[in-house]
Amino acid sequence: MKIVTAFGIFVLMLVGCTSVEYQKMQAERDQLLKNYEDVRQEHDELALKDDLINALLGKWKFLNLDIEAIDVSEEVAATKAALYALELKNLTLEFFEKKGIYNYRGKNGNTDVFGQFAITTVRYGDEPFPFIRFIRRSGPEMRQLLFAASSDGKPLGLPGASGLDTAKAISISVTADRLYLTMHGKMQLSPNGWVQSGGVRCYLEKVEE
Prior knowledge:
The chain is of the alpha+beta class. 36% of the residues lie in helices and 40% in strands. The longest helix is centred in the first third of the chain and has 55 residues, at 2-56.
């Protein structure tokens, strides 16, 4: 009986040790997977930023402006957009690098702006959303030049602001010949993922590399 009991205790100890080792290995595996995912996401976001900057450099001319407002009809929003677009028809933006610093220069009529810019991302769920942050050195803030913000500083037709500092950070998307800059409303989770509720989108055409 004593032999059986001793053997049983040994088995329990062995199982206990095995269980502890397994938990330790599982914890190490989970940490490695987390580290890998963090590195992968960071790499993806850095690659996204680099691609955006490379596509962004050059000179752009204003094409049009869209307003997506949830509190007015599409016809009213389109009319407002057309009126604001008249104010921006001569707008040009230039993005360039000088001594390792990324700069922007904008002009619309007698209004000039200049400063530095940086690309940042905000992650909603698994998807990073890119934004461009304008660091003003001279002239009005970019939202005033780009979106003809009212004198009280409120963005055009937007029913509220997100947690992001939209005075200096604007949603950005770039293709080979189009630049889309958006002053957006709140981010909301829909059945199809995160979407922006309302917004003012200004899009421009590349005229110089």
